[in-house]
Amino acid sequence: MSATLELVSSQRCFGGWQRRFRHASASTRCEMTFSVYLPPQAQAGARVPALYWLSGLTCTDENFSTKAGAQRAAAELGLALVIPDTSPRGAHVADAERYDLGQGAGFYLNATQAPWSEHYRMEDYIVDELPALLEAELPIGPLRAISGHSMGGHGALTLAMRHPGRYVSASAFAPIVNPADTPWGQQAFAAYLGEAREAWLAHDASQLMATVAHRLPLRVDQGGGDSFLPEQLQPDVLCAAAKAHGWALDYTLHPDYDHSYYFIASLIEAHLRFHAGHLARA
Amino acid sequence: MSATLELVSSQRCFGGWQRRFRHASASTRCEMTFSVYLPPQAQAGARVPALYWLSGLTCTDENFSTKAGAQRAAAELGLALVIPDTSPRGAHVADAERYDLGQGAGFYLNATQAPWSEHYRMEDYIVDELPALLEAELPIGPLRAISGHSMGGHGALTLAMRHPGRYVSASAFAPIVNPADTPWGQQAFAAYLGEAREAWLAHDASQLMATVAHRLPLRVDQGGGDSFLPEQLQPDVLCAAAKAHGWALDYTLHPDYDHSYYFIASLIEAHLRFHAGHLARA
């Protein structure tokens, strides 16, 4: 397959292939594992567009692959699904006791503070290294969209806004939208970026809406029964920023739905269609 | 909700509810946990038909709920999904070191041999106790279909054949079809039913085809890349029995697909439509 990609597993799924790969990452200076779904359209030698999926706290590349049911619509629409891990991993990689910092909680940024700065360079990994690798080694073309859940929703929104032109569209399920002002984000940013709040604002989706000129289509869905909604998620802050700064944000609150993959599964087809539509016009 | 059913969790999913319940079972003389998906049609006071799903070795009621992606089609078709556990459970319940006997491996029969016979009465539980409970306590009517995977495919086929009229249709993914002649079945039947082979034949789908007069629609799908295919599964034996005894068996071999939930997810919609069609005509 490739000198740089080690195939971990390969399973037939909806006429395509669900695969896991391992590789040595230059960005994170450790071995990284990711999953990718290649739809049937990628089998015929054609290069297909890719939706990058960023998972939430504690997840690996396998939660979305096994629980979201996204492959069905991806097979219909001819979209590859690229599902990276949520942090660097390994016995030599810095970690924390808490679930919301360290391994499984990389927050999709490049850490500047010791001990995190040695391996926690997830922004470089997701935005540059992984696409370059995939577009060289797999039947995946350079049209990209990005989505994610919770911490991964934060990642999808901020990476799309911070890197104009890298992604055609971005979406999120129950994202952390103002990490500079909410507990999960504050503790992670203090560790990874230091105590100076100015550094945090460049990784806060609601703040970025005020400063980023490049616009792209955004969709956000939030469950009304999500226990993290009032303290950690606060989608109203993102909606207010979008309105104030002229972003077209397609936001919907869904009564009763919680923070789980049952919520993601219920709406993933709509997100894939949203991205496929924008990718087709790109 | 109910004096007999304890609600463990309730999560919104595709406009319906994914729920877990715990209850004291008279059949298995222990506490049992099951999952049920109630589609939107069950919310309006209407009673909906139910597809019983029997899982494979080592599974609980949660594998199918989280990995099969069945709720989407169930919501469209107005089908409840009933997902029991695969055995009795508890510190006081007999168990074995091996993964294919004891807890997580009940084989959907009533054990006759000590120490298993005290709690391992899964046939009574699935066929009688659970439907009576659900049809009394939840918006689920008495029209039933049954499906399952691997050991649960064995359960679906044999319970449907052994209990004429209980199920409108039966289907299976990669089922154990001749347990009296294959290793998983032989070791389990020897423990649960004793060494006399005659007792085994009444729980062997391929054997039952010769003796059961009542016909019902059957569908079986098998992955061609399933590592258990040649030794444990042997679908050709079922196909030959169906042909010899005049059963209409809709059997398909799917190249490359393995024994995992990626295979189930790829075909679950087709199974739900198969059952919904027969339930609508019942």
Automatic annotation (TrEMBL), chains A, B:
The record's family statement is: Belongs to the esterase D family.
Molecular function as annotated in GO: carboxylic ester hydrolase activity; S-formylglutathione hydrolase activity
What EC number(s) does this enzyme carry?
3.1.2.12
Q: Does the keyword Ribosomal protein apply?
A: no
Q: Where is the active site?
A: S150, D226, H259
* GO process terms (BP): formaldehyde catabolic process
Function text? Serine hydrolase involved in the detoxification of formaldehyde.
Which species does this protein come from?
A: Rivihabitans pingtungensis
Kindly give the SUPFAM superfamilies that the UniProt entry links to this protein: alpha/beta-Hydrolases
Protein's name according to its UniProt entry: S-formylglutathione hydrolase
Source species, domain of life: Bacteria
Its GO CC terms are:
cytosol
Q: Which InterPro entries match?
A: AB_hydrolase_fold (IPR029058), Esterase-like (IPR000801), S-formylglutathione_hydrol (IPR014186)
> What are the record keywords, sorted?
Hydrolase, Serine esterase
- Reactions catalysed according to its record: S-formylglutathione + H2O = formate + glutathione + H(+)
A Pfam family recorded for this sequence: Esterase
